[in-house]
Each structure stands twice: as structure tokens, then as C-alpha cells.
Amino acid sequence: MTFTRRTFMASTALLALARAESILAQADNAQHTQTFNSAALSFAHSNDVDWGGFFGARYKKSLERLAKEPIDKIEFVLDDVNFNQKRRFYNYSGDISGRYLETASLTSTKEKPTTPILMDVVHEIVQYQKPDGHFGREVDWNKPIDVAGSTDQSLEMPILWGNGRLLLGLLAAYERFGDEKAFEAAKKLADFYVNIVVKRFCDPKRMDEYKQQAKGYAAAYVTCVFHGIEGLVRAYRLTGEQKYLDCAVEMADFHEEFDTLPVGHSHGSISAHEALVMLYEETKDKKYLARVEKRWRDAVEGGFVFPAGGVCEQYHVSGKSDEGCSEADWLRLNLMLWRNTGDEKYLDSAERTLYNEYQMNQWHTGGFGHRYMIPDDKGCFAWGERYAESWWCCSYHGPLGYYEFKEFLAVAALDADNRLSKIYYNFPLDFVAPLFVDGKEWKVTSRQIKNEQDAITTTKIVVSSDVDAGFQLAVRVPEWTTALRVRSKGKVDEYPSESAKDGRIYIDANSGREYEISYLGVPYLEDRRFHKRTQPNVNEPLAGCVLRYGPNVMAARENDATKIPDLNLSLDKNGAITLNESLLTSASQMTDEERDGKHVFVFNVTLVE
Asked: How many Å apart are CA 318 and CA 378, to the nearest integer?
């Protein structure tokens, strides 16, 4: 791939501008947060969005996985609540069954369940609920926590983890199918948190007990207790009962002392942060959103998020493996943060995850799981080999991340007079999204088309409606672009990235009019903490570089990944970087077989002529 002198020079100037991330940028973000009105946003329902292209196919395959062995049998799914067979993680009561219910229900329509056995699972699971509201083995909740056993041997904490997932699953089954028995079981389980969990596990007098070091990090107190907040907030949203919101607030406030990095389990930690965002949405108490934004900055700037947009299973800088559940949570959290702040860096982060780490974590079966990561003291610099498709967790949570991403492809917003004001065009992908605003339907159709030579990607977008009305098309300017070129009715306008306002360009558009948008850009270098780097002089080595082209993090086609390799990047006669396709690839370009292998994504770069 080669690029013109004009786009190369524009990129160089823009990268210099982007490095000014100091007080002015912070002030701009603060001002933007004040003016962005999250309450005015209108989202399409995920199931009504037709997602095509590469990612639509990957999402479809992830749903098909839910109806294949071993999770295609009722007996297997329900083993964690009725113990009818000996299978792994049976003490995590509700972990598989709850995840199955949540993802399969949400991705269903009332008339067409996602999987053949879904309604049987919904109808049968409620009979296994204990009198106190929990699912799983009988437990004396007042005795001291046992965290000395391994992950498979522990009892109380795994039950709480699983019940947190099952609360979400039962609520999803009610939300999608109106099943009253599932709803009654969900309320009874939420009451278990109100009557037992918050009193027993958020008691200031028992801090020494809570701070014990657990032998199994996935069975630790901080991992298993607080992710239940999410289900409590959803219970409040569906019932309107204040006791559930009050319980969620009490747990969230108690959690603050344990909300640290590093922590043993990223999935549990990020799930709790998703719940904090939801609490902010319900209470409007800014302290919850501020906690999540701070933790996001700590994770990104501290190296807990590696350059390919993922986090390790253990929330450490030098983790040894990834986890599909954690990647889905990181994707979802970024979307939630944009929804509440309007800060485009969160969509940049979500896009990086989707194109790179998410694809490397998804298996050829469509499921998700674990692969080895290869770190040094600064963090992960390479993907190692895959080692487990995790039918016990990741293969349900991965499609849930896709499901929620669909709702953010295009979003409508109302102005103060409740008239259509903006269509936020967030991702240049193939989709059709119906947006309902003020009783009217607007259909957003986006199609990827053949690129121009200097474009990374090009789309055609049409927003149509029965009403002849104007609106603003608010096109996101991704971090990887140098300019956007817009064609409509023979007119061509080019918008340099630095001209964007709050990360967007705004086009005064009309219903039914077609707009062709080309995203221009060139390869560029980052450091390992997501900062764009000044391009080095020719023959001047620069250590620890991440090479970006478009939304992709470029990787070596295959490498033993024992160390960060040297990489020579050629410049053509115009001074533009040329990517050697025989040496470099990206996650979204690889075959499934190639994704199984080891791939380095951090290099010591030297530019050569």
C-alpha cells in the first residue's frame, strides 16, 4: 500500500497536532461533556438492525454457536442449578444457565427464539430456586467466607458470581418473552441481594474477612460479589421498586475501597464498572461516572489495556492470557461511556477492540475463549496461541458484545423542541438501522464500496424518511483518519481531521439524499500507551512501536513471539510509508487458521528509503 505525498504531509501535520493532549484537550472534553445531551439520544433496537459485511457474518456465527455441542442440551445448560451431571464449574450456579438465558433471550424475537431449547430452559430453571431466593447448593451465609480452596473447590463466592449472571438472564427472559414465572424468580433473586447479600457482604465490621487473599482469583470476594449490581439496576428498571436501586447504591459505595488496579479478575472488575455507569444513568450522581472514567484512564495509561485493544484475564499489565468475557465487557463499557459523555475517544477505543482483539479471541466455531498473551514488563506485545474455547462463559458473552455494538452504528438525537436534530454516524460499516424519533421512522443505510486509491474505506450512506425534512449528519472522524472526503450530487468537499468539532464533521443533509464518504489516512506509529509518535528520521531506530493503518493494529504474519522484533518500513520516493503485505497483516484480514498462531503487534521500527 502506498500513499500520495499530499496525504502523507497532511498526516504528519495532524499527528503533531494530536500530540497536544494537555490542559486544552481536557478543557475541551469537559466542555463537550456539559453540552452532550445523552437523554436526547434515540437508539435502534439491536434485533432490528441489519448488520452485514465481515462483522455481521462474525456476529451471526457467534449466535449459531449457541445451538451447537455441548451447549445445545438442556441437561448441560441447567447442570449448575440442578447438578444432574458432573461438569466443570458446577458451583458457579447460574453462570452458564444465566449467561445462556441473557444472550439467547436478548438476541431472540418473541416469535423466534435464538436457540431451539431456549424456552424449555426458561420454563424449567425456575423450579430450582431456593427459599431464600438464590440458586445453587444450600449455604450458611453467616459463616466465614471460604476462599482457601481452588476455583473449582470454592462454594460461596462461585454461587454469588453465578447468581449475578442468572439475575440478568431471568430479567432478559421476561423482557423478551413476558414470562411471568421468570420475572417472579428474578424478583425473588433480587430480594436475596436486598435481604442477605448486601447485609452479609457489605458489612464494615468484616473488612478483614473480605480482604483475604483468595486461592482462586475467579472465586474471590471482590470478583464475585459486586458484579451483581448490574442485575439490581436492571431489576429496578423493570419493576420500579426503589429497594433494588437502594441496594445497588449501597453495594456500589462499599465497592469503592476495593475498586483498584491491578485486580485478580478483569471480567468481574469491568462488569462492576458497567453497573456503575448504569447507576449514574438512574441516579444522575456524577461520582459513579467519575469513578469509571478514572478507572478507564488508569487502565489505558497504565498499560492494563494492551495496544490491540484488549485486557488480560487477570487485570494485570503483564498478564499471561486474555478472556473473551473481558474483551466483551471492555467493548461494552466504552460504548456506555460514549453514550453518557459524547467523548469520541471511547468510540475510538471500542473500534480498536472490535477490529483487533475481538477478532483474535473469536474462534473458528464462532465462540469465544482464551489465548496465551506474551508480555514483558511494559505489557503484552504479542498474541500467543489459542488454548480454550470457553463454553462456560466467553461463548455467551462474546455475542452479547456484538449485540450491543449494533445499537451504536448510527444513533439519532432530538433537539430541545423534540425535532430530529442529528444522526450520529459512528462506524463506516455495512448496516441498515431503523431509528424512531418523535413517532416517525428514519432508516439509515450504510454500505461499504470500492475505495479510492488514497482512502482507507469508503461508504455510501442514505438517511430516508416519509417526511421531507432536513437534519444534521454528524459523521465521526476516527483517530486514524487525516481527512474525510464527502461527495453528493456531483459536489466534493474535503474536511481535514483538524477541522472536526468535538471529533465530528456536521453535514446539513436531506432525507433520501446519498452521501459518499471516503476516510483518508496513512500508516502511523504509536507508543505502547496509545499515543501517536513522531515519525523518526530515516535509519533512526525507534523502540516499542505500534503500527496503525485505519482501525487495524498491524501484526507480523507469524513469529515465534519470544521478543519484540525489528521491523524495517520502506518509504517510497515521495516519503510515504509502504506496508509490506508479505510481512504484515491484521486481525480482520487473517484467516481463521492464521488467527490460531502467534502474532507480534509491537515492533522496533526503522524507516528506510
From this structure: 7
Query: pTM above 0.70?
Result: yes
| Whole-number percent of the chain with pLDDT over 70 | 93
Q: CA distances (Å), 283 to each of 245, 332, 342, in order?
A: 9, 20, 19
CA 375 to chain centre: 22
Q: Which helix (H) or strand (E) holds 177?
A: helix 156-177
At which residue does the C-alpha cell 438517511 appear? 463
517's CB contacts (< 8 A; 6+ apart) are 425, 428, 458, 459, 460, 461, 475, 484, 485, 486, 487
- What the block records as the C-alpha cell of 86 is 458432573
Give residue-wise pLDDT tens across range 420-460.
679 999 999 999 999 988 778 899 999 999 887 889 999 99
Which residue from 492, 369, 477 is spatially nearest to 425, judged by alpha carbons? 477
Residue-wise pLDDT tens digits, 142-166: 998 887 777 777 889 999 999 999 9
Q: How many CB atoms lie within 10 A of CB 241?
A: 15
Q: Are 570 and 608 in contact (CB under 8 A)?
A: yes
Give the whole-angstrom CA distance, residue 335 versus residue 33: 15
DSSP state of 408: T
User: Look-up: residue for cell 433496537?
Assistant: 45
The values of phi and psi at residue 43, to 5°, are -105, 145
Backbone angles phi, psi at 113, to 5 degrees: -60, 150
C-alpha distances out from residue 132 to 99, 159, 225, 226, Å: 22, 13, 17, 19
Please give the average per-residue pLDDT across 581-595, as a whole number. Answer: 95
**Higher local confidence (pLDDT), 336 or 415:** 336
Q: Determine the Cα–Cα distance for residues 331 and 327; give it in Å rounded to an integer.
A: 6
Contact 186, 178 (CB under 8 A): no
